[in-house]
Design brief:
Structural class: alpha/beta
Distance between the termini: 34 Å
Low-confidence stretches: none
Radius of gyration: 21 Å
Length: 372
């Protein structure tokens, strides 16, 4: 073993963005304006342009972004939103926050995003929207989802929290449905130094309402038109994100390069298989493989090779205790995937030599024979 390979480092790099990040922080401190100021306004304009949208509304986190979109669309108590069982639980929790009920539809067995062929069967009289998640950086099958949504007059709200700058058939995610929700949690492709989120849309009236809702429903100071919430991206995080946003295309290119290197070396077949790339717009927030011997693979990589791996995600959302009040859903494909997925290290600072070492270690893995 030639040294440990951590899954990720969140420390700004001196050879990359550290100088810009520190300068951004100093600028905010010197100005003394920390909430809903010029940094947020500038970031909203810059992020909207980068995302191919007309408007961006910065909020406290990605969960609030989803919940606020639903609220702004008038979706709440008594309504249902169809979504995926395979994601961070926050996707479904946001639906509950809006007062609606999540309805879970199983995933495509290869892509692991929501299966459009199963959505129509789940549509009922209370269904108002579809919430696809662009999982691990790979877009869901949006053209097929659009067909279902159009046939049933449903809104599409995109969860883009893992898919900054991703495209689906060449179209920027977040601009295909009525709006898209992004997270800037520190581990994301575009990460802040704390929580943060944004909503993108091409609907000006929707953007205006979202700006009110994120700020207590205020039309102006101390005048509350409706019952909003307090979910405002602060100036410090906006400044950090502005410093990093110009680097995002380069970071995305590096993620794709690392993923291609993994794919060349891991190949197909064997006891460990990489999830397939179904859309060239994949931005590789994570590089995920599947194996029926996950615990053994993780132990092999950690103990013998010093390689850290993570699991995204070990429990299907419908099986979470937090979903106990929701009608149970039998999502067998997602359940199987949750028992097999493993995320290998992938981030812009990862060197080619480390990628080669990880791939070699995966190749060297031999699952223990199963006793009958």
């Amino acid at each position: 073993m030639t040294g440990r390979i951590p899954f990720l480092s969140l420390v700004p790099r001196e050879d990359d963005d550290a100088g810009d990040v520190h300068a951004a922080i100093d600028r905010v401190v010197a100005r003394g304006w920390f909430i809903l100021g010029p940094e947020v306004e500038a970031f909203e304009q810059e992020f909207a342009a980068a995302s191919g949208a007309t408007h961006a509304v910065a909020v406290g986190n990605g969960t609030d972004a989803i919940a606020l979109i639903l609220r702004a669309l008038g979706i709440g108590r008594g309504d249902e939103v169809i979504t995926t069982p395979l994601s961070a639980a926050y996707s479904a929790l946001a639906i509950l926050m809006a007062g609606a009920r999540p309805v879970f539809v199983d995933v495509d067995p290869h892509r692991l995003t929501i299966d459009p062929a199963r959505i129509a069967a789940a549509v009922g009289p209370c269904t108002r929207a579809i919430l696809p998640v662009h999982l691990y950086g790979q877009p869901a099958d949006m053209r097929a989802i659009e067909g279902v949504a159009s046939a049933h007059d449903l809104a599409i709200v995109e969860d883009c929290c893992q898919a900054h700058l991703a495209t689906s058939d060449g179209r920027p995610v977040g601009t295909i449905g009525v709006a898209g929700a992004f997270s800037f949690y520190p581990t994301k492709n575009l990460g802040a130094l704390g929580d943060g989120g944004a909503i993108v849309t091409r609907d000006r009236a929707l953007a205006d309402r979202l700006r009110r809702l994120r700020n207590g429903g205020q039309t102006d100071r101390y005048h509350h038109q409706e019952a909003g919430i307090n979910s405002r991206l602060d100036e410090m995080q906006a400044a950090v994100l502005r410093a990093r946003l110009p680097r995002l295309p380069g970071w995305t290119a590096r993620r794709r390069s690392i993923a291609a290197r993994y794919r060349r070396q891991l190949g197909n077949g064997g006891s460990v298989e990489a999830l397939p790339e179904r859309d060239a717009g994949h931005v590789y927030h994570l590089f995920v493989v599947r194996t029926a011997a996950r615990a053994d693979l993780q132990a092999h990589l950690a103990a013998a090779r010093g390689i850290e791996t993570l699991i995204h995600y070990p429990v299907p959302i419908p099986r979470q205790p937090a979903m106990a009040a929701v009608e149970p859903a039998d999502c067998q494909i997602a359940a199987r995937a949750c028992g097999e997925v493993v995320s290998l290290p992938l981030h812009p600072a990862l060197g080619d030599a480390d990628v080669d070492r990880i791939a070699e270690a995966v190749h060297a893995f031999a699952p223990r024979p199963q006793l009958s």
